[in-house]
Design goal:
Shape: globular
Radius of gyration: 23 Å
Helix content: 25-40%
Distance between the termini: 37 Å
Number of helices: 8
């Protein structure tokens, strides 16, 4: 049997580590942020307090609305402009982030220890790499000489990595490649986000993740203001791909549900579900599996391959023979329990029918590795890395 392998790209957006916002998005640590309010006549204390609290619990969409009002009411207050820029940075709107960061006076912005990082990262995401390098260098110099590194969100080694990426990008853009990207069309793509497509081996059916108003339950994620993710399915016909349908319950729930991978026979769909306990700030995400039985998808259950943990497992790929499973996780490494960046692991089915313990693969680095795809040839593993 011949096996065809294609890479499909749907509309959506991809953000770097600092502000990931997809189904498999990494929850970030919450930090208390103090807003310095300088009194100027009547002070809208209620709005200031609400903006600060929404920012503190990382509900940046709501915080941005309030800071928009505050910047209009108090246009000279650099703090409000700065935090509005941070909100848009966290929401993935790099152009608006740059707009507001650029309005901050340098003498005021220097009071915010991570200002130069945020504006550098915004320029980097907008492909303004020369501008990004200038701000990264300033941030790095500050880090190198500070006596209180604990006040900063990033280390010198992390900034060196970002500087290297910018320099690499500048060189790569000098030699553009001729690549044709074909849009799936309006039946599949919308004004909202579509990503993580998985396709049957005969290329006639596709499942993908989308954040659109038809999400089950009709809710929005309070962190980024986008609709909760659901899984959709579409079938290919002679005239092209059909209109996608929400897979509905029990596969989808009122919160985040996202595609991970599909077994070669199309009978097992692996999905990602996040768990959130906001009061305890406890976040994690696990991989589940649903099976097609008598034409109906079963209720998802956690995979039993020694994959899930108390940490974050956002992506995975099963071999065509279903005896190996590759996945990413931010669990601590055995040789460095304090590190929690994403690595790729593998488990394999033993002769006893049991699954092995996860093995951290030898190509992992000090950066992050994610999104494994194990080719049906049984020999080739694709993955992404930010190193």
């Amino acid at each position: 049997m011949r096996i065809f392998y294609c890479i499909f790209i749907l509309t959506g957006f991809f953000l770097l580590k600092s502000n990931q916002s997809t189904a498999q998005k990494k929850p970030s640590d919450k930090k208390n942020v103090k807003v310095d309010n300088k009194k100027s006549g009547h002070v809208d204390k209620k709005t200031i307090h609400l903006a600060r609290e929404y920012f503190r619990v990382e509900e940046y969409d709501e915080a941005a609305k309030l800071y928009e009002g505050l910047t209009q009411k108090y246009p000279q207050n650099q703090n409000y402009i700065y935090y509005l820029g941070v909100c848009y940075f966290k929401l993935g709107d790099k152009e608006k982030a740059i707009k507001y960061f650029s309005q901050c006076r340098k003498d005021s912005a220097n009071g915010q220890v991570d200002f130069n990082y945020y504006i550098a990262k915004s320029f980097q995401l907008a492909h303004h790499f020369d501008d990004a390098l200038q701000y990264y260098q300033v941030y790095r110099d500050t880090l190198s000489h500070t006596k209180t590194p604990e006040k900063f969100e990033h280390s010198v080694s992390e900034i060196d990595r970002e500087i290297e990426r910018c320099r690499n990008a500048i060189e790569l853009m000098k030699h553009p490649q001729d690549v044709e990207i074909i849009n799936f069309g309006k039946n599949v793509n919308t004004e909202f986000h579509e990503y993580m497509p998985v396709i049957t081996i005969d290329e006639t059916e596709m499942m993908f993740t989308s954040r659109r108003p038809t999400t089950l339950g009709g809710g929005k994620d309070p962190v980024d203001g986008n609709w909760y993710e659901d899984i959709y399915t579409t079938t290919k016909t002679d005239s092209g791909w059909g209109v996608p349908e929400n897979m509905g319950a029990p596969v989808n729930t009122p919160t985040h549900d996202a595609t991970v991978c599909l077994s070669a026979d199309g009978q097992k769909l692996f999905i990602y579900k996040s768990q959130v306990e906001r009061l305890s700030d406890n976040f994690n995400g696990d991989i589940y599996v649903t099976e097609l039985k008598d034409g109906v998808w079963t209720a998802p259950r956690k995979v039993e391959y020694n994959v899930n943990s108390d940490f974050w497992e956002p992506s995975g790929s099963i071999s065509a023979t279903e005896d190996k499973f590759f996945f990413s996780s931010n669990r601590p490494r055995h040789n460095d329990p304090h590190r929690k960046d994403r690595d790729i692991y593998m488990v394999k089915k033993l002769a006893t029918g049991q699954w092995s313990q996860p093995k951290n693969l030898n190509f992992n680095t000090d950066a992050e590795e994610d999104a494994p795809f194990f080719h049906p040839d049984g020999r080739t593993l694709f993955f992404s890395a930010d190193g």
